[in-house]
Design goal:
Length: 402
């Protein structure tokens, strides 16, 4: 039995926060661009790893039906590493997984040292005849490091997916046969397992709002087919990444505020502990959490009824109480690298093989089960992106997304 999804339902799901519905990305499918940089010859020093790209050995990601053939890449992911750091980590990911995080830390430190060194030389030569040259070198190094960091962030996200045994859906152009797309296995359970109950409840509502499929839908409903434009599907996917990012930010804020509002529960917080917690948080998150609370004393001496309300308030009710500023701060991507990564991944996933762009009028037939698989993957991608961004920014200063 076939159904049809309206464009209005796909593009503008009312359950998404307004800041998520608003397009952060200037274009979901921009023209592709290639930047070639000379491979660096440095090797890592803290481990025995060497930066060399080994021949591809295995295919670790494959989704779709039998006609969805693996690409020549060993990763078979939509976006392929382009920099030396990304290709090196791709090799480590496949051949020496136990050393992956060590290699990531080394690469980030190396990139930070490269960029800081170029900036230092720029300032030291500011009064010399070579000032313009060193300023230009610093700009190019900044750009080079940004592309490399995006590759590293992508590999970190891929590693997180591999930990739950979920391969990223490869390029859809390799999975569509006779305008029909099917993604199998669905991996719904694995993709839902990373979320708490409160978050999962909101994700299931999001899936129902976007594609009309409930969590307890029958097998017949799941495998019913519908027609959808690839462009609409790409917009839905990108919006779901932003929604997953928003939920991760909001849920952590909710957890921390509950800890502060109920100091005598499982986590005992006094004024000293709260100040230590505030210092240990990332700057943006610290402002987000503690800006919502007037002061520590008012939290610890608040009325009992308000504490009970906070204790029993679930995440959905908590988010619905956000004002416009708090909603925007939770939903906004913190770094330009995260913005670029979503844009490039979405373009690579939904673009065609010729020019990486979509034909706006291209319509495919797919099942609601496959649509749910894409939505759940996108939400998980956004959640992993939040974690990755926090980790990378602790080692390498990312560019702020204004």
């Amino acid at each position: 039995m076939d159904y049809s999804l309206s464009a209005r339902t796909i593009i503008s799901p009312h359950f998404l926060p307004s800041t998520v519905k608003s397009p952060y990305l200037p274009s979901i499918f921009p023209p592709p661009f290639n930047l070639n940089f000379a491979c660096r010859s440095q090797t890592t020093t803290s481990t025995s790893l060497r930066r060399e790209v080994r021949p591809p050995l295995v295919v670790v990601a494959k989704a779709g039906s039998s006609h969805c053939e693996p690409s020549s890449s060993s990763l078979n992911t939509p976006l392929e590493p382009r920099t030396a750091a990304g290709k090196f980590l791709s090799s480590v990911f496949q051949n020496q997984r136990e050393l992956f995080h060590v290699a990531v830390a080394d690469e980030l430190k190396l990139l930070a040292d490269d960029r800081d060194g170029a900036v230092s030389r720029m300032f030291l030569s500011s009064d010399s005849d070579e000032a313009f040259l060193h300023r230009r070198i610093a700009e190019l190094k900044e750009h080079e490091c940004q592309i490399a960091v995006e590759d590293i962030m992508y590999m970190l996200i891929l590693f997180k997916f591999s930990e739950i045994r979920v391969p990223l859906v490869p390029k859809l152009s390799s999975c569509i046969y006779n305008s029909r797309l099917e993604i199998w296995p669905s991996k719904d359970w694995e993709l839902e397992s990373i979320h708490s109950f409160d978050i999962l409840e909101m994700i299931r509502e999001h899936v129902f709002t976007v594609i009309g499929l409930r969590a307890n839908s029958s097998v017949t409903d799941c495998w019913a087919t519908t027609e959808i434009q690839l462009l609409q599907l790409g917009q839905m996917y990108a919006a779901s990444i932003l929604y997953g990012y928003f939920l991760k930010s909001a849920s952590l804020k909710h957890y921390l505020e509950r800890c502060l509002a109920v100091p005598h529960q499982d986590i005992h917080l006094n004024c000293r502990n709260v100040l230590q917690l505030q210092d240990s948080l990332p700057h943006d998150l610290s402002n987000l959490v503690f800006g919502h609370i007037s002061n520590v004393q008012s939290v610890s001496s608040g009325q009992g009824s308000s504490k009970q309300d906070c204790k029993h308030e679930n995440l959905k009710c908590y988010v619905m109480g956000f004002d416009a500023e708090t909603l925007q701060r939770c939903a906004k991507l913190k770094s330009k690298e995260a913005v670029n990564l979503i844009e490039k991944h979405s373009c690579a996933l939904f673009g065609n093989d010729k020019n990486g762009l979509l034909e706006n009028d291209e319509v495919i037939l797919t099942s609601f089960s496959s649509l749910r698989r894409l939505i759940l993957e996108a939400v998980a991608f956004g959640s992993f992106l939040w974690d990755t961004e926090e980790y990378v920014s602790s080692v390498f200063k990312l560019n702020e997304n204004y």
